[in-house]
Amino acid sequence: MAEEQQLFKITIDGITIEVPQGTTVLNAARMIGKEVAPPAMCYYSKLEGSGGKCRTCLVEVAAGSTKDPRPMPKLVASCRTVVMDGMIVKNKTSERVIDARNGIVEYLLINHPLDCPICDQAGECHLQDLGYDHGLAGTRYEFKRRTFVREDIGPYVQLHMTRCILCYRCVYVADQLTDHRVHGILDRGDHSDISTYVSKAIDNDFSGNMIDVCPVGALTDRTYRFKNRVWFLKPMDAHRDCDKCCGKVTLWNRGDEVYRVTARKDPWGEVQEIDGKTAWICNTCRFEKKKASDWTIEGPTKIDRHSVISANHYAEKVQPPDPLNKVLFGRKPLLLMDIHEVSKVNTPDIDLSKIPGPATSTTFIDRDEAKDIEQAEAERLLINDHKELP
Ligand code: SF4
Ligand code: FES
Protein backbone atom coordinates (compact mmCIF):
# COMPACT_ATOMS: atom_id res chain seq x y z
CA MET A 1 0.00 0.00 0.00
CA ALA A 2 1.32 3.43 -0.90
CA GLU A 3 2.61 5.38 2.09
CA GLU A 4 0.47 8.35 3.03
CA GLN A 5 2.20 11.58 2.07
CA GLN A 6 3.12 13.79 5.01
CA LEU A 7 1.60 17.27 4.99
CA PHE A 8 3.50 20.33 6.22
CA LYS A 9 1.86 23.51 7.44
CA ILE A 10 3.19 26.83 6.12
CA THR A 11 1.93 30.36 6.68
CA ILE A 12 2.62 32.89 3.93
CA ASP A 13 1.64 36.53 4.47
CA GLY A 14 -0.73 35.43 7.24
CA ILE A 15 -2.47 32.70 5.23
CA THR A 16 -1.91 29.09 6.29
CA ILE A 17 -1.97 26.11 3.97
CA GLU A 18 -0.96 22.45 4.22
CA VAL A 19 1.24 21.16 1.43
CA PRO A 20 2.94 17.82 0.70
CA GLN A 21 6.47 17.41 2.07
CA GLY A 22 9.04 18.50 -0.52
CA THR A 23 6.92 21.37 -1.93
CA THR A 24 8.87 24.57 -2.45
CA VAL A 25 7.80 27.80 -0.78
CA LEU A 26 7.07 29.29 -4.22
CA ASN A 27 4.72 26.44 -5.16
CA ALA A 28 3.02 26.58 -1.74
CA ALA A 29 2.42 30.30 -2.36
CA ARG A 30 1.03 29.53 -5.83
CA MET A 31 -1.38 27.04 -4.22
CA ILE A 32 -2.72 29.88 -2.05
CA GLY A 33 -3.05 32.21 -5.03
CA LYS A 34 -1.75 35.21 -6.89
CA GLU A 35 -2.15 37.55 -3.92
CA VAL A 36 0.79 35.99 -2.11
CA ALA A 37 2.79 34.27 -4.88
CA PRO A 38 6.24 35.82 -5.45
CA PRO A 39 7.22 36.63 -9.04
CA ALA A 40 9.50 34.13 -10.80
CA MET A 41 11.65 35.05 -13.78
CA CYS A 42 13.82 31.94 -14.07
CA TYR A 43 11.89 29.15 -12.33
CA TYR A 44 9.64 27.16 -14.68
CA SER A 45 7.83 24.25 -13.07
CA LYS A 46 7.97 22.16 -16.27
CA LEU A 47 11.72 22.50 -16.73
CA GLU A 48 13.94 20.41 -14.50
CA GLY A 49 16.76 22.32 -12.81
CA SER A 50 15.25 25.75 -13.47
CA GLY A 51 15.22 28.41 -10.74
CA GLY A 52 17.80 29.90 -8.43
CA LYS A 53 19.25 32.37 -10.94
CA CYS A 54 17.26 35.60 -10.99
CA ARG A 55 16.45 36.17 -7.26
CA THR A 56 13.09 37.85 -8.01
CA CYS A 57 11.34 35.23 -5.86
CA LEU A 58 13.18 36.13 -2.63
CA VAL A 59 11.11 35.85 0.56
CA GLU A 60 11.72 36.35 4.27
CA VAL A 61 11.50 33.28 6.50
CA ALA A 62 10.25 34.66 9.83
CA ALA A 63 10.22 31.21 11.46
CA GLY A 64 12.08 28.18 10.05
CA SER A 65 9.79 25.48 11.47
CA THR A 66 7.85 24.47 14.57
CA LYS A 67 10.90 22.58 15.85
CA ASP A 68 13.30 25.44 15.18
CA PRO A 69 11.32 28.67 15.00
CA ARG A 70 14.35 30.90 14.56
CA PRO A 71 14.10 33.27 11.57
CA MET A 72 16.51 32.79 8.67
CA PRO A 73 19.05 35.61 8.70
CA LYS A 74 19.02 36.22 4.94
CA LEU A 75 16.22 36.34 2.40
CA VAL A 76 15.90 33.04 0.52
CA ALA A 77 14.95 32.11 -3.03
CA SER A 78 11.44 30.67 -2.62
CA CYS A 79 11.76 28.57 -5.79
CA ARG A 80 14.66 26.63 -4.25
CA THR A 81 13.58 26.48 -0.59
CA VAL A 82 11.41 23.59 0.56
CA VAL A 83 8.66 24.00 3.11
CA MET A 84 9.31 22.90 6.71
CA ASP A 85 6.43 22.11 9.07
CA GLY A 86 5.32 25.28 10.86
CA MET A 87 7.33 27.62 8.62
CA ILE A 88 6.26 31.28 8.59
CA VAL A 89 7.09 33.22 5.45
CA LYS A 90 6.65 36.86 4.56
CA ASN A 91 6.44 37.96 0.96
CA LYS A 92 4.43 41.10 0.24
CA THR A 93 4.17 41.86 3.96
CA SER A 94 7.95 42.18 4.35
CA GLU A 95 9.62 45.53 3.80
CA ARG A 96 12.97 43.74 3.41
CA VAL A 97 11.56 41.64 0.56
CA ILE A 98 10.04 44.61 -1.24
CA ASP A 99 13.29 46.52 -0.88
CA ALA A 100 15.34 43.58 -2.18
CA ARG A 101 12.94 43.00 -5.07
CA ASN A 102 13.18 46.67 -6.06
CA GLY A 103 16.96 46.22 -6.11
CA ILE A 104 16.77 43.01 -8.18
CA VAL A 105 14.51 44.69 -10.74
CA GLU A 106 16.90 47.63 -10.96
CA TYR A 107 19.73 45.16 -11.46
CA LEU A 108 17.86 43.22 -14.19
CA LEU A 109 17.18 46.48 -15.97
CA ILE A 110 20.79 47.67 -15.91
CA ASN A 111 21.48 46.28 -19.35
CA HIS A 112 17.95 45.77 -20.55
CA PRO A 113 17.01 48.37 -23.17
CA LEU A 114 13.82 50.41 -22.96
CA ASP A 115 12.49 48.63 -26.02
CA CYS A 116 8.91 48.06 -24.85
CA PRO A 117 7.33 50.34 -27.49
CA ILE A 118 8.77 48.18 -30.27
CA CYS A 119 9.26 44.84 -28.56
CA ASP A 120 6.99 41.92 -29.56
CA GLN A 121 6.90 40.75 -25.94
CA ALA A 122 5.34 44.00 -24.69
CA GLY A 123 2.07 43.26 -22.96
CA GLU A 124 3.08 39.77 -21.90
CA CYS A 125 6.57 40.48 -20.60
CA HIS A 126 7.20 39.51 -17.00
CA LEU A 127 10.00 42.04 -16.69
CA GLN A 128 7.68 44.80 -17.89
CA ASP A 129 5.13 43.79 -15.22
CA LEU A 130 7.88 43.71 -12.57
CA GLY A 131 9.11 47.10 -13.76
CA TYR A 132 5.64 48.55 -13.15
CA ASP A 133 5.45 47.07 -9.65
CA HIS A 134 9.02 47.59 -8.48
CA GLY A 135 10.92 49.73 -10.95
CA LEU A 136 12.41 53.16 -10.49
CA ALA A 137 11.31 56.05 -12.69
CA GLY A 138 14.89 56.52 -13.91
CA THR A 139 18.16 54.63 -13.98
CA ARG A 140 21.13 55.27 -11.67
CA TYR A 141 23.47 53.41 -14.00
CA GLU A 142 26.09 55.62 -15.57
CA PHE A 143 28.04 53.15 -17.67
CA LYS A 144 27.54 51.97 -21.21
CA ARG A 145 25.00 49.20 -21.57
CA ARG A 146 26.01 45.90 -23.15
CA THR A 147 25.16 45.85 -26.83
CA PHE A 148 24.87 42.95 -29.24
CA VAL A 149 23.84 42.62 -32.84
CA ARG A 150 20.56 40.84 -33.44
CA GLU A 151 21.07 37.25 -34.49
CA ASP A 152 18.81 34.93 -36.48
CA ILE A 153 19.22 31.59 -34.83
CA GLY A 154 17.48 29.36 -37.32
CA PRO A 155 14.66 30.15 -39.73
CA TYR A 156 12.06 30.94 -37.08
CA VAL A 157 13.75 32.48 -34.05
CA GLN A 158 15.53 35.79 -33.64
CA LEU A 159 17.73 36.52 -30.63
CA HIS A 160 17.96 40.01 -29.14
CA MET A 161 20.71 39.42 -26.66
CA THR A 162 20.42 42.96 -25.27
CA ARG A 163 17.06 41.96 -23.76
CA CYS A 164 18.19 38.65 -22.26
CA ILE A 165 18.25 38.33 -18.47
CA LEU A 166 20.20 35.04 -18.54
CA CYS A 167 17.47 32.99 -16.90
CA TYR A 168 18.60 29.76 -18.65
CA ARG A 169 15.02 28.69 -19.45
CA CYS A 170 15.68 28.44 -23.20
CA VAL A 171 18.78 26.36 -22.53
CA TYR A 172 16.74 23.92 -20.44
CA VAL A 173 14.11 23.72 -23.21
CA ALA A 174 16.81 22.84 -25.71
CA ASP A 175 18.31 20.29 -23.30
CA GLN A 176 15.08 18.67 -22.28
CA LEU A 177 12.87 18.95 -25.36
CA THR A 178 15.03 18.85 -28.43
CA ASP A 179 17.30 16.07 -29.76
CA HIS A 180 20.55 17.93 -29.42
CA ARG A 181 21.14 21.35 -28.01
CA VAL A 182 23.16 23.67 -30.21
CA HIS A 183 22.94 26.82 -28.11
CA GLY A 184 23.75 27.81 -24.58
CA ILE A 185 25.26 30.49 -22.39
CA LEU A 186 28.80 31.22 -23.46
CA ASP A 187 31.34 33.03 -21.28
CA ARG A 188 30.76 34.22 -17.74
CA GLY A 189 30.04 37.38 -15.74
CA ASP A 190 29.07 40.42 -17.75
CA HIS A 191 30.44 38.73 -20.89
CA SER A 192 27.75 36.03 -20.68
CA ASP A 193 25.98 35.60 -23.97
CA ILE A 194 23.32 33.27 -25.33
CA SER A 195 24.56 31.92 -28.61
CA THR A 196 24.75 28.93 -30.89
CA TYR A 197 27.86 26.85 -31.25
CA VAL A 198 29.78 28.27 -34.24
CA SER A 199 26.63 29.98 -35.60
CA LYS A 200 24.73 26.74 -35.99
CA ALA A 201 21.03 27.12 -36.75
CA ILE A 202 18.45 25.92 -34.29
CA ASP A 203 16.21 23.79 -36.47
CA ASN A 204 14.80 21.20 -34.12
CA ASP A 205 11.03 20.52 -34.31
CA PHE A 206 10.43 21.81 -30.79
CA SER A 207 12.82 24.76 -30.76
CA GLY A 208 9.94 27.29 -30.96
CA ASN A 209 9.11 26.50 -27.33
CA MET A 210 12.13 28.59 -26.36
CA ILE A 211 10.11 31.63 -27.41
CA ASP A 212 7.27 30.66 -25.07
CA VAL A 213 9.51 30.19 -22.04
CA CYS A 214 11.57 33.36 -22.53
CA PRO A 215 10.26 35.75 -19.84
CA VAL A 216 11.36 38.81 -21.83
CA GLY A 217 11.53 39.61 -25.54
CA ALA A 218 14.99 38.16 -26.11
CA LEU A 219 13.76 35.28 -28.26
CA THR A 220 11.10 36.33 -30.74
CA ASP A 221 9.05 34.62 -33.43
CA ARG A 222 10.40 35.69 -36.83
CA THR A 223 7.06 34.94 -38.50
CA TYR A 224 5.31 37.45 -36.20
CA ARG A 225 7.94 40.13 -35.67
CA PHE A 226 6.51 43.67 -35.77
CA LYS A 227 3.25 42.42 -37.33
CA ASN A 228 0.93 43.53 -34.52
CA ARG A 229 0.62 44.38 -30.85
CA VAL A 230 -0.54 41.57 -28.66
CA TRP A 231 -3.34 43.61 -27.06
CA PHE A 232 -4.96 44.14 -30.46
CA LEU A 233 -5.23 40.40 -31.04
CA LYS A 234 -7.97 38.05 -29.91
CA PRO A 235 -6.64 34.83 -28.36
CA MET A 236 -8.63 31.73 -29.28
CA ASP A 237 -8.15 28.13 -28.14
CA ALA A 238 -7.84 25.86 -31.16
CA HIS A 239 -6.59 22.41 -32.08
CA ARG A 240 -5.61 20.30 -35.06
CA ASP A 241 -4.53 16.70 -35.58
CA CYS A 242 -0.77 16.77 -35.35
CA ASP A 243 1.51 13.75 -35.47
CA LYS A 244 4.33 15.57 -33.62
CA CYS A 245 2.68 17.36 -30.71
CA CYS A 246 -0.66 17.61 -28.89
CA GLY A 247 -1.87 20.16 -31.49
CA LYS A 248 -3.64 22.21 -28.78
CA VAL A 249 -2.69 25.86 -29.11
CA THR A 250 -3.73 29.47 -28.70
CA LEU A 251 -4.29 31.35 -31.96
CA TRP A 252 -3.79 35.11 -31.80
CA ASN A 253 -6.21 36.48 -34.40
CA ARG A 254 -7.28 39.77 -35.79
CA GLY A 255 -10.53 39.14 -37.61
CA ASP A 256 -10.02 35.85 -39.41
CA GLU A 257 -6.31 36.36 -39.82
CA VAL A 258 -4.02 34.22 -37.63
CA TYR A 259 -1.05 36.39 -36.62
CA ARG A 260 0.73 33.96 -34.38
CA VAL A 261 0.37 30.58 -32.73
CA THR A 262 1.59 29.86 -29.20
CA ALA A 263 1.26 27.10 -26.66
CA ARG A 264 -1.53 27.60 -24.12
CA LYS A 265 -0.36 29.31 -20.92
CA ASP A 266 -1.39 28.89 -17.28
CA PRO A 267 -1.82 31.78 -14.78
CA TRP A 268 1.93 31.75 -14.11
CA GLY A 269 2.75 32.29 -17.77
CA GLU A 270 3.96 28.70 -18.15
CA VAL A 271 2.88 26.24 -20.84
CA GLN A 272 -0.25 24.49 -19.57
CA GLU A 273 -0.58 20.85 -18.63
CA ILE A 274 -3.20 19.16 -20.80
CA ASP A 275 -4.23 15.56 -20.06
CA GLY A 276 -1.40 15.25 -17.52
CA LYS A 277 1.33 16.34 -19.95
CA THR A 278 2.99 19.68 -20.63
CA ALA A 279 1.42 20.88 -23.88
CA TRP A 280 4.61 21.91 -25.74
CA ILE A 281 3.87 22.49 -29.42
CA CYS A 282 5.90 21.66 -32.52
CA ASN A 283 7.30 24.12 -35.04
CA THR A 284 4.86 22.99 -37.73
CA CYS A 285 1.86 24.02 -35.61
CA ARG A 286 3.57 27.18 -34.41
CA PHE A 287 5.10 28.57 -37.60
CA GLU A 288 3.48 26.87 -40.58
CA LYS A 289 -0.22 26.71 -39.79
CA LYS A 290 -1.24 30.34 -40.07
CA LYS A 291 -4.60 29.90 -41.78
CA ALA A 292 -7.81 29.81 -39.73
CA SER A 293 -8.88 26.83 -41.88
CA ASP A 294 -5.93 24.81 -40.50
CA TRP A 295 -7.57 24.81 -37.07
CA THR A 296 -10.71 23.78 -35.25
CA ILE A 297 -11.59 26.76 -33.06
CA GLU A 298 -12.76 25.87 -29.55
CA GLY A 299 -13.57 29.37 -28.28
CA PRO A 300 -11.98 32.44 -26.70
CA THR A 301 -8.96 31.80 -24.49
CA LYS A 302 -9.47 32.58 -20.81
CA ILE A 303 -6.73 34.98 -19.82
CA ASP A 304 -6.21 34.85 -16.08
CA ARG A 305 -2.92 36.68 -15.85
CA HIS A 306 -2.83 40.22 -14.58
CA SER A 307 -1.47 42.00 -17.65
CA VAL A 308 -2.46 44.32 -20.44
CA ILE A 309 -3.36 41.25 -22.53
CA SER A 310 -6.14 40.50 -20.08
CA ALA A 311 -7.87 43.79 -20.97
CA ASN A 312 -11.35 42.81 -22.16
CA HIS A 313 -10.45 39.13 -21.84
CA TYR A 314 -10.18 38.90 -18.05
CA ALA A 315 -11.98 35.72 -17.01
CA GLU A 316 -11.59 35.84 -13.25
CA LYS A 317 -14.21 37.35 -10.94
CA VAL A 318 -13.01 40.33 -8.94
CA GLN A 319 -12.70 38.95 -5.44
CA PRO A 320 -11.32 40.58 -2.35
CA PRO A 321 -8.08 38.91 -1.32
CA ASP A 322 -8.32 36.73 1.76
CA PRO A 323 -6.82 39.15 4.30
CA LEU A 324 -9.38 41.78 3.22
CA ASN A 325 -12.17 39.28 3.79
CA LYS A 326 -10.98 38.83 7.35
CA VAL A 327 -11.07 42.55 8.05
CA LEU A 328 -14.50 42.94 6.52
CA PHE A 329 -15.92 39.89 8.37
CA GLY A 330 -17.57 38.56 5.24
CA ARG A 331 -19.12 41.91 4.24
CA LYS A 332 -18.71 42.98 0.67
CA PRO A 333 -16.21 45.80 0.19
CA LEU A 334 -17.74 49.03 -1.14
CA LEU A 335 -15.85 48.51 -4.37
CA LEU A 336 -18.11 45.58 -5.17
CA MET A 337 -21.43 47.27 -4.30
CA ASP A 338 -24.35 46.66 -6.60
CA ILE A 339 -25.17 50.16 -7.80
CA HIS A 340 -28.87 49.27 -8.11
CA GLU A 341 -29.09 48.32 -4.45
CA VAL A 342 -27.56 51.47 -3.07
CA SER A 343 -28.69 54.18 -5.43
CA LYS A 344 -32.02 55.35 -6.77
CA VAL A 345 -30.25 56.49 -9.90
CA ASN A 346 -29.95 54.09 -12.79
CA THR A 347 -32.71 51.76 -11.65
CA PRO A 348 -32.87 48.82 -14.05
CA ASP A 349 -36.69 48.94 -14.39
CA ILE A 350 -36.51 52.32 -16.16
CA ASP A 351 -36.17 51.78 -19.86
CA LEU A 352 -34.36 54.88 -21.08
CA SER A 353 -35.34 54.24 -24.69
CA LYS A 354 -39.03 54.52 -23.74
CA ILE A 355 -39.08 57.79 -21.80
CA PRO A 356 -40.02 60.89 -23.80
CA GLY A 357 -37.13 63.30 -24.21
CA PRO A 358 -33.84 63.19 -22.33
CA ALA A 359 -33.63 61.65 -18.83
CA THR A 360 -33.66 64.15 -15.97
CA SER A 361 -33.34 63.80 -12.21
CA THR A 362 -37.10 63.20 -11.96
CA THR A 363 -36.78 60.14 -14.22
CA PHE A 364 -35.13 58.19 -11.44
CA ILE A 365 -36.91 59.35 -8.32
CA ASP A 366 -39.36 57.21 -6.40
CA ARG A 367 -42.61 56.53 -8.33
CA ASP A 368 -44.93 57.92 -5.56
CA GLU A 369 -42.68 60.91 -5.17
CA ALA A 370 -42.86 61.43 -8.96
CA LYS A 371 -46.68 61.33 -8.87
CA ASP A 372 -46.73 63.95 -6.08
CA ILE A 373 -44.42 66.19 -8.07
CA GLU A 374 -46.52 65.77 -11.24
CA GLN A 375 -49.72 66.62 -9.30
CA ALA A 376 -48.14 69.67 -7.65
CA GLU A 377 -46.94 70.84 -11.06
CA ALA A 378 -50.45 70.38 -12.56
CA GLU A 379 -52.02 72.33 -9.67
CA ARG A 380 -49.46 75.12 -10.09
CA LEU A 381 -50.27 75.40 -13.80
CA LEU A 382 -54.04 75.42 -13.04
CA ILE A 383 -53.66 78.25 -10.51
CA ASN A 384 -51.54 80.21 -12.99
CA ASP A 385 -54.22 79.70 -15.67
CA HIS A 386 -56.93 81.06 -13.32
CA LYS A 387 -54.74 84.05 -12.46
CA GLU A 388 -54.42 84.90 -16.13
CA LEU A 389 -58.21 84.84 -16.71
CA PRO A 390 -59.68 88.38 -17.21
S1 SF4 B 1 17.07 34.29 -24.18
FE1 SF4 B 1 15.22 34.48 -22.88
S2 SF4 B 1 14.90 32.38 -22.11
FE2 SF4 B 1 17.02 32.45 -22.88
S3 SF4 B 1 18.27 32.96 -21.10
FE3 SF4 B 1 17.79 34.91 -22.13
S4 SF4 B 1 15.91 35.65 -21.09
FE4 SF4 B 1 16.15 33.49 -20.56
S1 FES C 1 12.50 32.40 -9.78
FE1 FES C 1 13.59 31.91 -7.96
S2 FES C 1 15.57 32.66 -8.37
FE2 FES C 1 14.53 33.05 -10.20
Task: Please state the oligomeric state of the protein chains shown.
Answer: single chain
As a percent range, the share of strand residues is 15-25%
- The 3D shape can be described as globular
Structural class: alpha+beta
Largest sheet composition? 5 strands, mixed
Unreliable stretches: none
Distance between the termini: 108 Å
Bound molecules: iron/sulfur cluster, FE2/S2 (inorganic) cluster
The topology string of helices and strands comes to: EEHEEEHHEEHEEHEEEEEEHEHHH
Output the number of helix runs: 9
Q: Quickly count the domains.
A: 4
How many strands appear in the DSSP assignment? 16
Biggest β-sheet: strands ordered side by side in the sheet: 2-1-5-3-4
Helix content: 10-25%
Write the layout of secondary structure elements.
Blueprint: E1 7-12, E2 15-20, H1 25-32, E3 58-63, E4 76-77, E5 87-90, H2 95-108, H3 126-134, E6 151-152, E7 157-159, H4 169-177, E8 183-186, E9 193-196, H5 209-213, E10 219-221, E11 234-239, E12 248-254, E13 257-263, E14 273-274, E15 277-278, H6 283-288, E16 296-300, H7 322-328, H8 339-342, H9 367-388
Parallel strand pairs: 1-5
Antiparallel strand pairs: 1-2, 3-4, 3-5, 6-7, 7-10, 8-9, 11-12, 11-16, 12-13, 14-15
Helix pairs in contact: 2-3
Iron/sulfur cluster (SF4) binds at residues 164-170, 194, 213-216, 218-219.
Characterize the structure shown.
This protein has helices spanning 25-32, 95-108, 126-134, 169-177, 209-213, 283-288, 322-328, 339-342, 367-388; strands at 7-12, 15-20, 58-63, 76-77, 87-90, 151-152, 157-159, 183-186, 193-196, 219-221, 234-239, 248-254, 257-263, 273-274, 277-278, 296-300. The longest helix has 22 residues, at 367-388. The strands form five sheets. The protein has a five-stranded mixed sheet with strand order 2-1-5-3-4, sandwiched between helices. It has a four-stranded antiparallel sheet with strand order 13-12-11-16. The protein is globular, with a radius of gyration of 28 Å. It is built from nine helices and 16 strands. The structure holds iron/sulfur cluster (SF4) and FE2/S2 (inorganic) cluster. FE2/S2 (inorganic) cluster (FES) binds next to loops.
